[in-house]
Design brief:
Blueprint (H helix, E strand, L loop, with lengths): L4 E4 L2 E4 L1 E5 L3 H13 L3 E5 L2 H11 L3 E5 L7 H9 L9 E5 L4 H9 L4 E4 L4 H48 L5 E4 L2 E8 L7 E7 L4 E9 L4 H13 L2 H7 L5 H11 L9 E9 L4 E7 L4 E4 L5 E3 L18 E4 L5 E5 L15 H12 L4 H16 L8 E8 L1
Parallel strand pairs: 3-4, 3-5, 5-6, 6-7
Antiparallel strand pairs: 1-2, 8-9, 9-18, 10-11, 11-12, 12-13, 13-16, 14-15, 14-17, 17-18
């Protein structure tokens, strides 16, 4: 018979069996038999000593007597099953009383298998081989689990690094034009989000604002959003569109960003704020998350029934125009803020968001966004949003 061994990280390691029995004759006899079979054998004469050996040596299989002083077999098993470091140890319980009730008790308290002290040498060999084989399978599973966890941790570090890069593409809160202040909120649902927003400075008095939402989550939507953000830079838009008109910009973008093979697409709102003429021009493509909160208290949602980008290359997107006054506020946001469910599946919704904005009136923009985020979290019941949360809030002084 070949020597029981296992290949681990390129090295052949002899398999180890620990025998715990307070009867020297029975222990030595079993040890001799297992050594002849090629196993490395460790011995202990009571449960407490055996527990120390188990922790130190981590044998492939422990053969354990039921009746022992200091710590009997079932008590030993219970200690092992409560120790996270020893939990997967394979234990073969020996007993001279192999009644069904006793076997059931031993299994319930943590033994993996039973071996009668009256068993034949063939049964002993078979049960030891089965126990060692099970230990090998568990070891391989633990190795694979460890490798997967290490790879997952490495992937999470990469995603966090990429997320920091994506966030670096977003504009900072502050003054973005003459008499125009912007406050932003960004909370990706995963380590990497697919929502992006930015400011396009057409001229001193003319500002472009957009928020795009890529369908899906994770690496692929984030990369597609980054590519789209490059297209939406001022120089690129002037080259491809030759205009600051939002409808013309979305009509051209629709040709450049068709549906992916997996059916992913973009929704977007693009607005142009003319500070000198006091007008807000905007166009949307499948996006309903933008509204103007006037100083008078009126809330005007900037939503039009139309297709997201990429569905039909012949789609022409129109431009709408609103007048603006000092004190008006523009909120451009992803639906991840208000389409959050409570424990019963009911969404917080646009109406509740609008009520909150009306309630807080002319409080500082940062406070309004903080209140909205807190209320959405309260409605959701936790802080892990199911979709990306992205908001730009702009105030015209």
């Amino acid at each position: 018979m070949s020597s029981p061994s296992v290949e681990h990280t390129g090295e052949v390691v002899q398999q180890t069996v620990l025998i715990i029995d307070d009867e020297p004759t029975a222990r030595v006899a079993l040890a001799s038999r297992l050594k002849r079979l090629g196993y490395r054998v460790l011995q202990a004469d009571d449960g407490k000593v055996g527990l120390d050996v188990l922790r130190r040596e981590r044998p492939d299989l422990t053969i354990l007597d039921w009746m022992m002083p200091e710590m009997d077999g079932p008590s030993f098993c219970e200690v092992v099953r409560q120790d996270p470091d020893l939990l997967s140890s394979q234990i073969l319980m020996m007993t001279s009383n192999d009644q069904p009730e006793q076997i059931a008790e031993g299994l319930a308290r943590g033994a993996d298998d039973f071996l009668s002290k009256a068993a034949s040498k063939y049964e002993i060999t078979a049960r030891v081989q089965a126990g060692v084989r099970a230990a090998g399978l568990i070891k391989r599973l633990e190795d694979v689990t460890t490798e997967i966890r290490q790879k997952q941790e490495a992937l999470e570090r990469e995603l966090q690094s990429a997320a920091r890069y994506v966030e670096s593409l977003l504009p900072a809160s502050g003054t973005i034009g003459p008499g125009v202040q912007m406050v932003r909120l960004y909370r990706p649902s995963l380590a990497l989000g697919g929502d992006l927003f930015n400011v396009v400075p057409w001229s001193d008095d003319l500002l472009g604002l957009y928020l795009l939402d890529a369908s899906g989550h994770g690496v692929s939507p984030a990369l597609r959003s980054a590519s789209f953000a490059t297209f939406l830079r001022r120089e690129s838009l002037l080259r491809h569109v030759g205009s600051s008109d939002p409808g013309a910009i979305l009509t051209e973008a629709n040709k450049h960003f068709p549906l992916t093979e997996n059916g992913h697409y973009f929704t977007i709102v693009f607005a142009t704020l003319d500070v000198r003429c006091h007008t807000l021009s905007y166009a949307t493509a499948g996006h309903s998350g933008a509204f103007l909160h006037r100083k008078s208290g009126e809330v005007c949602w900037m939503a039009r029934p139309n297709l997201p980008l990429g569905f039909d290359p012949s789609t022409v997107y129109g431009t709408e125009v609103l007048s603006i006054e000092p004190g008006d506020r523009l909120y451009v946001l992803s639906d991840g803020l208000y389409e959050v469910p409570d424990s019963t599946g009911n969404l917080w919704g646009q109406d509740r968001l609008e009520q909150l904005v009306r309630m807080h009136g002319q409080r500082p923009l940062q406070e309004v966004l903080s209140c909205a985020l807190d209320e959405a979290v309260r409605w959701l019941g936790h802080e892990q949003f199911p979709d990306d949360v992205a908001v730009m809030a702009v105030e015209i002084d």
